[in-house]
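Fold this sequence, please.
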Amino acid sequence: MVLRPAARVRRATLIVAVVFGLVSLSPAAALGGVSALLVTVAVETVLGVLLWVRVSRVRLVVTERQIEHVGVLRRRVRPRSDATHVVRATLVPPRGLPFPAVFVLDAGGAVIVRLNDGTYTRRDMDRLTDHLGLSWVGPDGPVSARRLAETHPGIVPFFEARPMVTGFMTAAALVLVLMAASMISLLL
């Protein structure tokens, strides 16, 4: 079985790339002239190609022996026998709409693969669950990533389970870097 990102995701990715490119061309030409326009066109072309590669490359392949997940920057292959159960949940982000997610876990609770409704269709997530033939569990209703991490430790990354802490830590690190840069510039 091969699952690819939904057609709506592929279209949206290309539309965003084109719109962003068009919006950034006018200021580049107005502020920097022809040379800035050419640099912006080159950068936008590279970004567009990278986005297209991302959309066309990402896939999940499940065979009788292995589960292969090809992402943007890496390819992960795990024996299918490692998959022991599935967790299905509707995650509620701090801002935004709830979305379904499917996590295929190994015996230790580590995530082998994760599918989100933002990338794959619900039908594809159902097909994966049925195709694997594993038992699945999940909360009765929508839950936050933090609540899901409490019941299934390690299932979501820290930054997703604790977005406020991550934001504050990032802001603090940025302030420290800016303070260090200003101190260095004063010394020079």
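Helices lie at 7-57, 122-132, 145-151, 158-161, 163-187. The chain has a mean pLDDT of 86.
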